Amino acid sequence: MKLDFMHQGGGVTKLHARDFAPSEDNHPIPRVGVISNPRSHRNRGRARPTALPEAYVIKREPSSRNELMSVLTQFVNEGVELIVIDGGDGTVRDVLSVAHGVYRGKLPRIAVIPSGKTNALTYDLGLPSHWNLGDAIAAHAADHTIDRAPIHIHWNNNALPDQLGFIFGLGVFSRATMLAQNVHRKGLFNGVAVFFTLAMAFLKSLFGGDRNSWRRGDMARVSRNGVEIFAERVYLILASTLRKMPAGLRPFGRVRDGLKFLTVKAPPRALARNILPVLTGAETPELEADGYLRRDADRIYLSLDRSFILDGEQFPGGNLIVSRGEPIHFVVPANA
C-alpha cells in the first residue's frame, strides 16, 4: 500500500491560543486542515496535543488512501483554505496525489511541516527545521507563498492513479534509494545521509564491471512530441522541478525553474572524472560527449521495463507520461 506514511507520520507542535484568536484588524480566521503522519522520523516519541480547536483546525491521521480521500473531501466541504502536511517527502507526495483528484487540480494553499528523513521539498522552500503549525498559519495570513510545480506521473490506460512528486529517478537512483534505507537505519539523515549514500553508490559503480547491476542500467524508451529520442539502457535518469536539491547538489546545472532531466547512458563513461562536475553543476562539452545529458522538457513519454522512484517510494514502470504539473502555492516564511 502506497499510503504507508499513515503508519509513519508526524505531529503538530507549539500551538498557542494566539494562533487561533481573531486578528486585531478583524481578518477572518482561516479554516485549516492538518494531515498528520505520527510516525515520521522527527515525530516519533514527540509529545503531541490531544485536542485542537475544531472551530478553526481540522486534524486528521488517515490510515489508507480511501481514508485520505474522505478527509480531503471533508476539507472541501468545510471550506479549508490551507492544508498543512505534517510529515516527510513521501507524505507530501501521497497527500498531493490524492488531493489533485479530489480538488480536480485546483488545490488550496499547502504548508509542510518538515518531519521526514530527508525533506527535499522543504529544503527547496527554505523552511527552518523548527517550522510549525502556528508559523504556517501566520505565514498564510501574511500571504507569504512560493509556487512550485510538481512532477505529474500518469500511467497510460490509467493502470495506476496519477502521482505528484518532486524527485523522479531510475537506474542507479533506484538502487541508491534502496541503499539509503539502510543508511537511515544507521541513524544518518538529511545531508549526511545523502553524501554517504552517494559515496557508497559511486564506489559500487566505479569498481564493478560493465555487467555489474550498478553499471549496466535499465532499459528506457523516451519520446517527445511524437518523436523517439532514444531506446537504450541508461545508468541514470533523474528529474526534478525543485530549484535547490538536498545537500547543495546541482545535478541539473544552473539553478532554474521547470522540469529538468539528467540522463547518463549505461555503462557510465569516465565516472571518476565526471562525477564531481555532474554533482556540482559544471556545464562542459566533455560531459555531453561522455553521455551525461541535461535537458529541460515540460512533457516526455517514457516506457520502462523496471520500476522507478518518486520521492523515495518505488512505483512500477510501464508506459508513462512524465510532465510538469500545475503550480502549487506553498506557504513559507517571510525570508524564504
TrEMBL record:
Residues 27-160 form the DAGKc domain. SMART domains: DAGKc. The keyword Transmembrane applies. The keyword Transcription does not apply. Pfam families: DAGK_cat (PF00781). Gene3D superfamilies: Probable inorganic polyphosphate/atp-NAD kinase, domain 1. The chain crosses the membrane at residues 187-207. Residues 20-49 are annotated as: Disordered. This is Diacylglycerol kinase family protein. It comes from Novosphingobium pituita.
